[in-house]
From TrEMBL:
This is Flavin-containing monooxygenase. The keyword NADP applies. The lineage of its organism: Bacteria, Bacillati, Actinomycetota, Actinomycetes, Pseudonocardiales. It holds the Pfam family FMO-like. Belongs to the FAD-binding monooxygenase family. Keywords: FAD, Flavoprotein, Monooxygenase, NADP, Oxidoreductase. Its EC number is 1.14.13.-. GO terms for molecular function: monooxygenase activity. Its cofactor is FAD.
Length: 569
């Protein structure tokens, strides 16, 4: 492998990374500064940040507490010391500044091509190298292709009839104008009530003349409890950082607190209410970790669901609107619950109308507004808070072709097939950071991102030490992982909702649970076991010929052991 000389013109790299958000930045640092490899990052945006570069809508902020929605001590303890978050859940500009700071501190920008979209990546069987093509006509080659393209980076703009006829302004929240949008005195339609709309609507309602919130499915929104962080908060957190980060790596969702080891129906009604209330008061996702069967048992789940509906009834003055805002058609947490800061109270305002587009669907966008089966809403601005073609949407747009020219989209026509969510057979030397069938979006993502990047880094180091430069998932390992993924999924209530987690938001998308539901801590142990057993389930070799490999099913065997240990304790 060649060594990095990043200031000279170069077209052949050890690795090409696509994307410069959390994943791409950390991957570049590891490739270049830890492994001494040459690397090029391509980023479609004009700066680093990924999600936090694109999603600039009013109210955008993280739902993981800032102090653990960041890089851990794996990157650097100094960085943890020098950065202090100003709010419990930082707003988009602060998170973007943080990622810009990381890029500058580690001198990452010099190896990133901004404003450049990867449009093709073809594997050459003869040379064992990837050729990566960009929208500005550049072409480079690399031994390794690493996708850091994000799970939520391809916007979903529903194909409403007449969409382009609208004469007012329209925006998708995931591609928000940098100069912002002035809603003052305007009539606005917001389509969607997911995590994005729940953040944006209260902000827009403060300025707009009127806001129509077009809701198809009500969500279980949890109290966020955002607040400023003072110097004392900062000191306390910094003093505990090592324990905090250790915990995030071991828990189910990558948070520093784990799911309580008790079932919802094992306690009295009063005790359950007390536990829910305490979690509610603390804010954030804690409510989802109060009992260990909320995602497994319908009756248990209903206790949390009803607790949340009662909170809506308390806060929304019109009982009919409160009922409309109360989910009845899916269990709690089978769609990603948004965190809210004043969302429900927004519906007590005179200038906000909740429109039920489940009962009367959107028929078309007209030149002057939105027409549903029942009425026409004349507006000046339409905000599409309609989400993303998650997990696979962006991967497919890369135009990835593996051995014998097989397209990734073709290979995954009936849903993703991966080994550990990191690699896929027929695509040697392709690694996917937070790929489908890894915990990814079912976790506090920086923790999952770091785990993948560190695993890939160790894997590349070992390959080099062993004199290999080619690695490929074995088909039997992949089949085994997909079967395991499906088995774990089937034990949960997650398939029960029409969520983007199962691809239900995109017409024609295979209905599968896309993230892995086995938990962050457990998944890490499985990946470590695979590595410790000399990359069990991967074939390795030289110059494209990956022949040296075996599969003995260590990931699943380890999962069974862990499950037995958990049952015994
Ligand atoms: P991204 O940040 O999505 O970056 C991927 C980058 O790849 C993008 O910049 C994109 O332009 C680039 N790219 C894609 N395709 C190409 C191409 N073909 N060529 C070149 N470049 C390309 N997660 C949490 O855990 N907690 C939170 O609180 C949280 N809040 C969120 C809030 C919002 C509004 C959204 C949308 C997501 C949130 N997430 C949250 C998920 C979030 O996406 C991840 O936490 C994290 O930012 C992902 O980082 P990433 O680097 O993997 O991907
Ligand atoms: P989303 O959860 O997919 O929500 C999209 C909304 O648009 C849903 O209410 C959906 O209704 C509606 N919609 C889509 N197509 C529609 C149509 N044709 N007609 C009517 N309504 C339609 O998208 P999102 O809110 O952007 O959030 C996506 C994910 O990004 C989140 O789940 C979360 O992981 C992440 N995110 C995180 C944060 C944070 O952590 N702070 C903030 C924002 C986003 P249905 O429910 O009926 O499909």
């Amino acid at each position: 492998m060649s060594h990095a000389h990043t200031d000279q013109v170069q077209e052949d790299f050890d690795a090409v990374v696509v994307g410069a958000g959390f994943s791409g930045l950390y991957m570049l640092h590891r490739l270049r500064d830890t492994l001494g490899l040459s690397a090029r990052v391509f980023e479609a945006g004009d700066d680093v940040g990924g999600t936090w570069y694109w999603n600039r809508y009013p109210g955008a902020r993280c739902d993981s507490e800032s102090y653990f929605y960041s890089f851990s001590d794996r990157l650097s303890e100094d960085l943890l010391e020098e950065w202090t978050w100003s709010e419990r859940f930082a707003a988009q500009p602060e998170i973007l500044r943080y990622l810009q700071h990381v890029a500058d501190r580690y001198d990452l920008r010099k190896d990133i091509r901004f404003g450049t979209r990867v449009v093709g990546a073809e594997y050459d069987d003869a040379t064992g190298r990837w050729t990566v093509r960009t929208d500005d006509g550049e072409q480079v080659t690399a031994t390794f292709l690493i996708t850091a393209v994000g799970c939520l980076s391809t916007t979903n703009l529903p194909d409403f009839p007449g969409r382009d006829s609208f004469r007012g302004e329209w925006y998708h929240t995931g591609a928000w104008p940098h100069e912002g949008v002035d809603f003052t005195g305007k009539r606005v339609a917001v389509i969607g009530t997911g995590a994005t709309a729940v953040q944006a609507v209260p902000e827009i309602a403060q300025d707009a003349a009127h806001v129509y919130v077009l809701q198809r499915t009500a969500n279980y929104d949890i109290a966020g409890g955002n607040r400023p962080m003072d110097a004392e908060d900062g000191r306390k957190i910094k003093a505990e950082y090592r324990d905090i980060w250790k915990a995030t790596r071991e828990t189910a969702f990558g948070f520093p607190y784990d799911v309580a080891p008790r079932t919802a129906l094992s306690v009295s009604d009063e005790e359950r209410q007390r536990i829910f209330h305490e979690a509610w008061e603390r804010g954030g996702f804690r409510l989802g970790t109060t009992f260990n069967d909320l995602l497994l048992d319908e009756e248990a789940n209903e206790t949390a669901a009803e607790f949340l509906r009662a909170r809506i009834r308390e806060r929304v003055t019109d009982p009919e609107i409160a009922e409309l805002l109360s989910p009845r058609d899916h269990p709690f947490f089978t769609k990603r619950p948004p965190l809210e800061n004043g969302y429900y109270e927004t519906f007590n305002r005179e200038n906000v109308t909740l429109v039920n587009v489940r009962a009367a669907p959107i028929r078309e966008i007209t030149p002057t507004g939105v027409r549903t089966a029942e009425a026409e809403y004349e507006v000046d601005v339409i905000v599409y808070a309609t989400g993303f073609d998650a997990m696979t949407g962006t991967l497919f747009k890369l135009g990835i072709r593996g051995r014998e020219g097989l397209g990734l989209e073709e290979r995954w026509a009936d849903g993703p097939h991966t080994y550990l969510g990191l690699a896929t057979h027929g695509f040697p030397n392709l690694f996917m950071i937070t790929g489908p069938q890894s915990p990814s979006v079912l976790s506090n993502m920086p923790v999952s991102i770091e785990q993948h990047v560190d695993w890939i880094t160790d894997c590349l180091r070992r390959l080099g030490e062993q004199g290999y430069d080619t690695i490929e998932a074995l088909p039997e390992a992949e089949d085994d992982w997909v079967a395991h993924h499906d088995e774990v999924t089937a034990t949960t209530l997650l398939p029960r909702a029409n969520s983007w987690w199962v691809g239900a938001n995109i017409p024609g998308k295979p209905r599968r649970l896309y993230p892995y539901a086995g938990g962050v801590g457990v998944y890490r142990l499985l990946c470590d076991e695979v590595a410790a057993r000399d990359y069990d389930g991967f074939a390795r070799g030289k110059s494209g010929a990956a022949t040296n490999g075996r599969f003995s099913g260590v990931a699943r065997a380890r999962y069974r052991e862990l499950a037995e240990e958990a049952t015994a304790s």
